[in-house]
Amino acid sequence: MTEGKAPGDCLVVVGGGQAAAQLVEVARQNGFAGQITLVSDEEFLPYQRPPLSKQYLNGVHDTDWLLYRPREFYSKFRVDALLGRRVEEIDRENRRVKMNDGSILAYDKLALTTGTRARMLEVPGRDLDRIYSIRTIADVERLRPQLPSVKRAVIIGAGFIGLETGAVLTQMGIDVVLLGSSTRLLPRIVAGDMAEFLLDQHLKQGVEVVLNAQVIAIDQQDDGQLTVHVAGGGSYAGDVVLVGIGAIANVELAEACGLQCDNGIVVDEFATTSDPNIVAAGDCTNHPNPLVGRRIRLETVHNAVEQGRTAGATIAGVNLPYIQTPWVWSDQYKFRFQSAGIAEGFDTTVLRGTVGSGKFSVFYYVEGKLLAVSCINQPHIFAAVRRILNGQAELKPEEAADPLFDLSRVQSKMNYLEFDIPWPTKEEKGRRLTWGHD
After folding, report:
1. Residues 33-63: pLDDT tens digits?
2. What is the average per-residue pLDDT within 418-425?
3. Phi, psi torsion values for 154, nearest 5 degrees
4. Which residues on neighbouring strands pair with residue 109, listed in sequence order?
5. Crossing angle between the packed helical segments 160-171 and 192-204, to the nearest 10 degrees
6. Helices (DSSP H) in 237-393: which residue ranges?
7. 18, 93, 192, 327: least CB-packed within 10 angstroms?
8. Which of 125, 118, 116, 117 is nearest to 215 (CA)?
């Protein structure tokens, strides 16, 4: 323990994702000098999750490459990392946490970066062997040894995990069937020309895409193959089944100790929970976003990093409000998809560029107001619109559609405002929005 212990001298961080590493880094950079203990139930230091379904799944990179910060970072920033350990109970009154081995850690400040876990199927046969999800290194380590003998895979879910995994397996020479429950791919994020482009790219690579597919059961044949049955009588066989149907926020610790939770751990713009001595950051939080106009829970790298930064600043006594437009990206085959904003409730889409060129953007509007943009291989458009959305500037539909219109003209008119979104009202508790990399 640090000598001369005073309030704030001891920080315990629960969780091993990017939010955790970013939090401790910013806390130290802003003057927090006390003891920091990071507790993760995984055997690895905080690591990047998106590459699990891409560069790590196909074996291009190893676990050290996945690390969000190198091993020496933790000694430099004086962080005691307790790996393979789990916090089982939070005692807020006495400011201590109980570990799975019975030991006790005292804290002055506590940070919850508990992330999410894969949502599981609730159908007969869901517990059969060779049904996998991809959320952790351990998940990939279970799956990867099977791949050399896999000829055909069935993927359930048409979000980022499903699409990225499908792309990687296809490029490894495995036949892929992709089952999506909606009418389009990435149903929470894209529509129109963008949805059609994504579908066309996967079809061109030989992926069998089945939309409006409601999985009702999985069974195993005598030869060991798994068969996925969908409503209406369809069935699809594969050597393995991968499930990517979203994630569940890990809020059990927070709920058990009485913290306010509602589709995530409820925090304010400074990542502070209903207990002023506890912050939370990353996929597990329900936080205010004035640029969107409501509370949301995000499952993105950007959110984990930026909210982790805010939480670290709060621990150090620095006010750094988290007010940014949500964004996400995905690499599939030879194209990069990027999206900024949330398109929920749009009534109009505007195309900039041509789909056939492989470089275009789709803008989403409601009553003439820009909500979001999604881009294919147009990083400059994505970056410009992120700034426009952050600055609450007006971009007219006809300007968005014109490839000759200089978006910097809009950026010069940006107006950064002060916002205040309160904690959830009774009405808001019925409106839940989760957006991210599932």
Report:
1. 999 999 999 999 999 999 999 999 998 899 9
2. 42
3. -110, 125
4. 11
5. 30
6. 252-256, 301-315, 379-390
7. 93
8. 125
Is the distance from CB of 81 to CB of 38 less than 8 angstroms? yes
Give which of 342, 326, 323, 341 is closest to 416, Cα–Cα.
323
Q: What is the pLDDT of residue 1?
A: 29
DSSP E strand boundaries for 116-212: 116-118, 131-132, 152-156, 175-179, 208-210
- Sheet strand arrangement including 348-354: 327-332, 335-341, 369-376, 359-366, 348-354
State the sign of the Cα–Cα–Cα–Cα dihedral 163, 243, 86, 6: positive
- Cross-sheet strand order for the sheet of 285-289: 265-266, 285-289, 294-299, 434-436
- pTM for the complete prediction? 0.90
Q: What is the DSSP letter of 67?
A: B
Tokens of 221: 């044949």
Cα separation, 98 vs 56, in Å, equals 34
Q: Looking at residues 175-196, what average pLDDT do you find?
A: 93
Lowest mean pLDDT across 81-90, 170-179, 405-414: 405-414
pLDDT tens string 113-155 = 999 999 999 999 999 999 999 999 999 999 999 999 999 999 9
pLDDT at 412: 65
Do 241 and 219 contact (CB within 8 A), yes or no? Answer: no
One-letter amino acid of 181? S
* Cα–Cα distance for residue pair 329/408, rounded to 1 Å: 22
* Structure-token pair, residue 8: 């704030």
* pLDDT, tens digit (0-9, with 9 covering 90-100), for 212-258: 999 999 999 888 899 999 999 999 999 999 999 999 999 999 999 99
3 state SS of 57: coil
**134: number of Cβ within 10 Å:** 23
Q: Tell me, what DSSP letter sits at residue 144?
A: G
Going by their DSSP bridges, the two strands 348-354 and 335-341 should be labelled as: unpaired
Give SS3 for 151: coil
